[in-house]
Design goal:
The chain is mainly alpha-helical. It has a single domain, classed as Orthogonal Bundle (Urease accessory protein UreF). Helix content is about 55%, strand content about 0%. The chain is built from 11 helices and no strands. α3 packs across α11 and α5 packs antiparallel against α9.
């Protein structure tokens, strides 16, 4: 006759030899789990973006949690309301799918408004770091003057005002005291980041990512792409954005200039577009 199985309570009261097992520490008879560092070459690491030949790896050391807060979609600047002219570009068919959107955003980063914003934010950061109020004011004046349309002016100064209001309330710094009246968004970001001692390259990378993700979100709402393609675009542009951010960190106001004429024309034409979801 076979003995009935012991209950859990009875099994716990048995000496170790009675249960048929030798008990050591829990899991002691199991092999140690492999560490991530012991993964064999040729596994998933071989397909990661950092290991693709010819691509410059993005440095994760540049991440700053404060920048993730200040430049996140939840920070109250109203970025969701603007398409930066993308809505008109979609209506005309200039941007119509994943490939054309990726090319559009890459152009803005390398020769368009994003490049300009990164330079202006960097100059504002440098001015605050050097306690040069005159240069900070000059950077803001230039930033406002460079807006190619009434809607892009509205987009920049409205977000700048909202950003300053939120920062002064929740993240105050004397670096913002010199800014009043209309303040361009990249100048406000640059001044605030310098006032809180973030690095210039970290600020530039975070700004580039936030700008790009904002327009990807606008494209999704315009039904140009789906959410998965949106993530593909951000992943593919990561190194382009990192290169643009790194390059502009050494630039001054003398390096300003762009060649994204179609984007500027789209922002002008959007002012009279009949059906619109966005303010720009």
């Amino acid at each position: 006759m076979t003995d009935r199985p012991h209950s859990l309570r009875e099994r716990a009261a048995l000496p170790s030899h009675a249960s048929g097992k030798t008990h050591t520490r829990p899991g002691g008879d199991l092999p140690d789990p492999p560490s991530f560092g012991s993964r064999k070459e040729g596994a998933s690491r071989a397909t990661s973006p950092e290991r693709v030949e010819g691509r410059q790896p993005f440095s994760r050391s540049k991440l700053d949690p404060r920048l993730m807060i200040w430049l996140s979609p939840s920070f109250p600047v109203g970025a969701f309301a603007y398409s930066h002219g993308l809505e008109f570009a979609a209506e005309r068919g200039w941007v119509r799918d994943r490939a054309t959107l990726e090319a559009w955003l890459a152009d803005l980063a390398t020769a368009g408004s994003l490049r300009t914003d990164l330079i202006l934010a960097g100059v504002a950061w440098q001015a605050v770091t050097a306690s040069d109020t005159a240069r900070l004011i000059e950077a803001n004046d230039v930033a406002i003057a460079l807006q190619p349309s009434a809607e892009r002016h509205l987009e920049s100064v409205t977000q700048g005002a909202s950003f300053l209001a939120a920062m002064r309330t929740a993240w105050p710094t004397p670096a913002l005291d010199a800014l009043d009246g209309d303040v361009a968004y990249p100048v406000a970001v640059g001044a605030a980041c310098a006032g809180h001692a973030t690095t210039r390259d970290a600020m530039a990378m975070a700004y580039a990512l936030a700008f790009t993700q904002g327009l990807v979100s606008a494209a999704i709402r315009l039904s140009l792409i789906g959410q998965t393609d949106g993530q593909r675009i951000v992943a593919l542009l990561l190194d382009t954005l990192a290169t643009a951010a790194d390059a502009t960190c050494a630039f001054t106001l003398d390096d300003l200039g762009s060649a994204s004429v179609r984007s500027d024309l789209a922002s002008l034409a959007h002012e009279t577009q009949y059906t619109r979801l966005f303010r720009s």
